[in-house]
Amino acid sequence: MTRVAGIAAVLSFVVFAACATTRQTHASIAGTAYAPITSAKAAIEASAFNDAARLRLEARPGDDLDRQIALLREQYAPLERAMSALILAYNAYVDAIQGARSGGDDAQLEAARALLVQWRDLRRVAGSLGIPVEAAPAELVEFTRSRP
Amino acid sequence: MSRSRDDIAADLLEALGGMATTVASVVGRPDAAIAVRAVTQAAADAIRKRGATTSQLVEALRHIGPVRMPWDREGKP
User: Is the ipTM of this complex over 0.95?
Assistant: First the structure.
């Protein structure tokens, strides 16, 4: 009986240790992803502000500035949506990591995959508007690919 | 902040220390358990030069604020 209990305890600990390591991996990935996402956000905001400011500076008397801004807004709408979706996915990933006590929660992996999907979508949309967005961290790609 | 061999080694040491601790406790040697745990944890901490535990890494994560476009401010740039 003691031996069985001992084996069970050891196995439990191995599972716990593996889960804790997984959680640390997720935390490392999220930490790595933070800077490029905030950089992309800043680049998109700066681009929109520059374009809007240019419209104002180059406006001539009689120009319908509101309409031009509205057109610019429409132009940026897909990018704004994609960036917002990526931020939501990242924040959800952080929530999943912080919410997982043992780290073995599948929600972390699902959130990581959702983050990768949104990241690729943003790159596609931003690329079509000529705004470069850094690729998703290799750790995120490799980790999501390595898990079933 | 990719995981280095040092990080992995530190994690493995901690896991091994935990297993040895559990085994020692189960066989009725709590003194050995404490000693093994102390040694392996110290070694893991020494290897993990950053000194960041999983909890510290998790706590360091921050949310990202919403996108702010020029037209979000009263509709004008």
Answer: no
